[in-house]
């Protein structure tokens, strides 16, 4: 699909980010690093076949080894292929759209640790609806208050499952 | 028929209207628990267990088992609508369920999933009613080697080369295995790949990974394609139920196969999650439309759901007859039996007739009631897709975060989920398949520990996997499944050759 | 009003009432305890849902709820990662938080030794011991021996393919420690096969996949009653007090202790409560009182009998002394067996 968009869509010059080949190689390298980590730790706990069967690290070690080999194949294919996939990995405008969700979500996850999940969720919904949806405040408030409130009733009161809470809830006695 | 008279007695127990009320309350709570990812059947039942303390055991088990049915039904809802599996066993449902919703066929997919669930449960409860003692004996045959054989079979029936590059398929699957190995090793008690971190002690939970990979990843992909859910035009017509039902009878062979797979996995006890994967894999291999699986095929929704619900229901059988839980939820129910002052095990059927047959009767009624409850919600849930993306997306992300947290009550799991979301997005774009990763993550741990238990028993001799007809035939079947694509290709060529020869 | 919905609603109402009239409403109602929880108390279970510790915790939650023993809700939370290390580390790290308690099992001693994760009971505040769980040596009912003597003779005679397999829960935890202790006492050798839960082990023993197990009574009693397993001895210093017949006219009290049968091993598993470090005396006293009330309920006593528990209950200095001794015993047993992480 991505190759298709790379070839068929006459993307403007400024839409170019990185090629599929570069991303392929980068991800393969990450895989290889991960595989090396897995192998080294498995070797530490013992990766041999003992008299009573495999040791704790036996399977993870070979899992790491296979992962390493498979990713090397991917890397080599990406680098030396005669028909490299030079299509665009993601258009700049698409990347912006993805970041529009990814960055606020990351901030949201960080906020959960600071102020608890209920307040963070309300803030997140307000931001999302206001910034991306351009909704009027009258429509935003019911959703932003209603969803965390419903979660609160369901989890803290019905099911007695405590979710992460912050200073606000503590002040209210929870 | 002794079983039949006992069953009628069981329905007599249900005549108490209060028990019917408990049943509906249980099912509604169960659907809610099933919809919320992270809060699974086992958690849900465990959370509500203390509530039942002052009820009679019969009412208590009816309510708790109804929660379980509700959760089994409800798991499919978010899988289909948002690509977020509400329960581990509904992961396989996302493969075709979500593409169907994107094509505007959410109603059909939901109806198919619910109906499949019902059929699976019905098949399983018939088994419990009439064959409980026979089946219970079968479950005892399963030692570590047999368990490993079952996991191997699940793998081999599911794995087949798709359109993705083989090196990437293998890398993704190995990543799943590696992640499954993080944490404490059950066989030696050693810590693996925790690198001194407390947070890594708990390992990577399958559900947290799946909520990220599928749920968050899906939202990122949707963003990339411009703010729109493709399923917007979902036609909401009550007749969609009848229309879908009309299509179901033609899948009878697949349904039967899925129900058998499910019952087998529930009884032995392999669990509902492997059952759903195995059933999906088998359907893909043997269906005429196998090639279209993954693109929104109704069959691909019905089959895993049938197997999952059959497994979930038949998991009660070893619990009642042997005292071995067939699933995590059954394990909690088992604890419940003790709390209510009952002793699970071989004598339960003799000593607590009212309880056992009341429960069995409630499985029949509970599933009918459950089907009615969830089918009436089909139009409501399908309508959710009409909500604009910028409203529903933050709500989905909030629910994902809550779900990731509740799996282990761990805050860091929310961050892990987000990372998996990014991985899910990258993988999709770079043509790394997610299904093998997820399957390896869910089965890797169980498969490895049963393999090593078997090796301990045999002191390192692989011959244990062919040491008796049962394990030998499962392992052989698994290996046949693995090479099946090759075999069928060769067969096709041979047939083609013959036809060509005949034509000459 | 017995319906669950009513309960849920009532619970909600109670929670609301508490938030609106927080301190003044609660304080005077308990004359003898100066401290009272002011919010939900988290009850940590350092093991998965469905296991022995989880069952007991949820049983306690049910008893507290049914008898209105607490003004605030008690919620059970499972933190089972790293053989329970996750749960204990959580409590260890919650300095001065009185709204958290943890139910302990033997992994309080075994996990730090086996994995090297740093925690001990001294990092927490001991509250009280609720009971001790028994261990019984079980074999398949079809086994040719009926007592420990016959079992040990067969164990010693076994060699090669006939090696005895001991099924147990987890690795380097209580079941394997007992197995190692038997090996040390007799010089015989077992193959220890670890499984995920006690129920699995009992079923594997019935199916003949292992030769023996040291299941807790509650995990194997139903198979005993059904005539599929038989108990050989109990790893306690005295016989069990429960005289009610269970199977073939035999009761728990008829099972000899291992010591009197010539296998001099004692092992009991802690079921006790701890709370975070630096809890004040008032706070500890509150929970000591609470568990005293829980233990007095008929539901608890029935549970103790069903599971054939040793009902020793301690608190204060006696409990600390018991913990000190148990920690030393575990260290000794595990060092001898070579289970301590390097």
TrEMBL record, chain B:
Pfam families linked to this entry: TctA
This protein's name: Tripartite tricarboxylate transporter permease
Species, as recorded: Xanthobacter aminoxidans
Domain DUF112: 20-439
Keywords, ordered alphabetically: Membrane, Transmembrane, Transmembrane helix
Record field: transmembrane: 20-49, 118-140, 147-163, 169-188, 200-221, 259-283, 322-343, 355-376, 383-404, 410-427, 434-451, 463-487
InterPro entries named in the record: DUF112_TM
UniProt key word Nucleotide-binding: no
From TrEMBL, chain C:
Transmembrane feature ranges: none
Statement: the UniProt record of this protein carries the keyword Transcription: no
Database matches in Pfam families: TctC (PF03401)
InterPro entries: BUG, Bug_dom1
Keywords tagged on the record: Signal
Signal sequence coordinates: 1-33
Family listed: Belongs to the UPF0065 (bug) family.
Protein name: Tripartite tricarboxylate transporter substrate-binding protein
Native species: Xanthobacter aminoxidans
């Amino acid at each position: 699909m991505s190759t298709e968009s790379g070839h068929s869509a006459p993307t403007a010059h400024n839409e170019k980010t990185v090629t599929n080949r570069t991303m392929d190689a980068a991800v393969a390298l990450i895989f290889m690093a991960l595989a090396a980590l897995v192998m080294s730790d498995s070797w530490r706990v013992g990766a041999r076949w003992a008299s009573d069967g495999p040791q704790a690290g036996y399977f993870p070690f070979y899992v790491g080894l296979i992962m390493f080999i498979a990713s090397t194949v991917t890397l080599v294919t990406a680098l030396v292929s005669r028909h490299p996939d030079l299509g665009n990995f993601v258009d700049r405008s698409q990347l912006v759209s993805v970041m529009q969700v990814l960055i606020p979500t990351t901030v949201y996850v960080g906020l959960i640790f600071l102020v608890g999940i209920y307040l963070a969720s309300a803030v997140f919904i307000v931001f999302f609806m206001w910034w991306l949806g351009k909704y009027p405040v009258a429509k935003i408030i019911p959703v932003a208050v209603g969803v965390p409130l419903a979660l609160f009733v369901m989890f803290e009161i019905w099911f007695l499952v405590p979710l992460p809470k912050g200073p606000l809830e503590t002040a209210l006695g929870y | 028929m002794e079983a039949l008279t006992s069953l009628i007695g069981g329905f007599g127990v249900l005549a108490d209207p209060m028990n019917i009320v408990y049943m509906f309350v249980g099912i509604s709570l169960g659907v809610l628990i099933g919809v919320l990812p992270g809060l699974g059947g086992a958690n849900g039942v465990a959370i509500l267990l203390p509530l039942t303390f002052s009820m009679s055991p019969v009412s208590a088990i009816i309510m708790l088992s109804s929660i379980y049915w509700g959760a089994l039904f409800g798991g499919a809802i978010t899988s289909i609508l948002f690509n977020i599996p509400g329960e581990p066993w509904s992961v396989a449902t996302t493969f075709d369920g979500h593409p169907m919703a994107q094509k505007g066929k959410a109603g059909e997919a939901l109806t198919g999933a619910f109906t499949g669930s019902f059929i699976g449960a019905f098949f399983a409860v018939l088994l419990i009613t009439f064959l409980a003692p026979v089946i219970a004996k079968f479950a005892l045959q399963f030692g570590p080697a047999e368990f490993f054989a079952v996991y191997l079979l699940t793998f081999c029936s599911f794995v087949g080369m798709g359109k993705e590059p083989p090196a990437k398929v293998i890398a993704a699957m190995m990543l799943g295995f590696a992640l499954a190995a993080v944490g404490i090793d059950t066989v030696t008690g050693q810590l693996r790949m925790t690198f001194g971190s407390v947070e890594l002690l708990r390992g990577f939970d399958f559900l947290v990974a799946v909520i990220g990979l599928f749920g968050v990843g899906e939202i990122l992909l949707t963003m990339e394609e411009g703010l729109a859910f493709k399923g917007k035009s979902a036609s909401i017509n009550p007749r969609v139920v009848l229309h879908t039902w009309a299509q179901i009878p033609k899948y009878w062979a697949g349904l039967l196969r899925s129900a058998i797979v499910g019952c087998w996995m529930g009884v032995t006890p392999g669990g509902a999650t492997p059952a759903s994967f195995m059933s999906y894999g088998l359907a893909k291999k043997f269906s005429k439309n196998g090639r279209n699986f993954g693109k929104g095929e109704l069959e691909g929704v019905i089959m895993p759901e049938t197997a999952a619900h059959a497994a979930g229901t038949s998991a009660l059988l070893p619990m009642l007859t042997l005292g071995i839980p067939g699933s995590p939820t059954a394990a909690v129910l088992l604890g419940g039996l003790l709390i209510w002052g009952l002793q699970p095990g071989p004598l339960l059927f003799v000593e607590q007739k009212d309880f056992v047959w009341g429960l069995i009767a409630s499985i029949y009624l509970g599933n009918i009631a459950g089907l009615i409850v969830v089918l009436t919600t089909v139009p409501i849930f399908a309508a959710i897709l009409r909500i604009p993306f910028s409203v529903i997306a933050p709500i989905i992300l909030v629910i994902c975060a809550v779900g990731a947290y509740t799996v282990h009550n761990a805050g860091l799991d929310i961050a892990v989920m987000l990372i998996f979301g990014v991985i899910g997005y990258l993988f999709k774009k770079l043509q790394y398949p997610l299904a093998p990763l997820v399957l390896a993550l869910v089965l890797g741990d169980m498969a490895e520990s049963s393999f090593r238990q078997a090796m301990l028993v045999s002191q390192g001799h692989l011959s244990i996997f062919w040491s008796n007809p049962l394990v030998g035939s499962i392992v052989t079947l698994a290996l046949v499944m693995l090479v099946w694509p090759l075999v069928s290709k060769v067969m096709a060529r041979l047939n083609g050759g013959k036809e060509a020869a005949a034509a000459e | 009003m017995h319906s669950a919905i009513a309960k849920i609603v009532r619970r909600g109402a109670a929670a609301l009432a508490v938030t609106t009239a927080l301190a003044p409403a609660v304080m005077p109602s308990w004359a003898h305890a100066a401290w009272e929880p002011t919010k939900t108390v988290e009850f940590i279970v350092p093991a998965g849902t469905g296991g022995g510790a989880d069952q007991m915790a949820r049983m306690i939650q049910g008893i507290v709820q049914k008898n209105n023993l607490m003004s605030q809700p008690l919620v059970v939370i499972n933190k089972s990662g790293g053989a329970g290390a996750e749960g204990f580390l959580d409590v260890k790290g919650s300095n001065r938080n009185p709204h958290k308690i943890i139910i302990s099992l033997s992994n309080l001693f075994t996990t730090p030794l086996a994995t090297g994760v740093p925690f001990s009971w001294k990092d927490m505040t001991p509250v009280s011991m609720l009971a001790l769980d028994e261990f019984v040596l079980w074999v398949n009912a079809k086994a040719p021996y009926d007592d420990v003597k016959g079992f040990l003779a067969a164990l010693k005679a076994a060699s090669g393919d006939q090696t005895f397999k001991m099924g147990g829960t987890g690795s380097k935890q209580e079941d394997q420690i007992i197995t190692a202790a038997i090996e040390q006492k007799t010089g015989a050798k077992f193959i220890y096969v670890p499984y995920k839960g006690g129920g699995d082990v009992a079923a594997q023993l019935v199916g003949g996949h292992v030769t023996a197990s040291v299941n807790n009574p509650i995990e194997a009693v139903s198979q005993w009653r059904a005539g599929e397993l038989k108990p050989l001895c109990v790893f306690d210093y005295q016989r069990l007090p429960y005289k009610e017949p269970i199977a073939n006219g035999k009761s728990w009290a008829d099972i000899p202790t291992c010591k009197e049968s010539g296998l001099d091993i004692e092992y009991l598993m802690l079921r006790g409560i701890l709370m975070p470090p630096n809890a004040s005396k008032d706070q500890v006293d509150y929970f000591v009182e609470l568990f005293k009330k829980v233990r007095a309920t008929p539901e608890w006593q029935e549970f103790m009998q069903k599971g054939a528990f040793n009902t020793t209950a301690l608190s204060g200095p006696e409990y600390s002394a018991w913990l000190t001794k148990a920690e030393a015993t575990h260290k000794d047993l595990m060092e001898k067996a070579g289970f301590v992480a390097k």
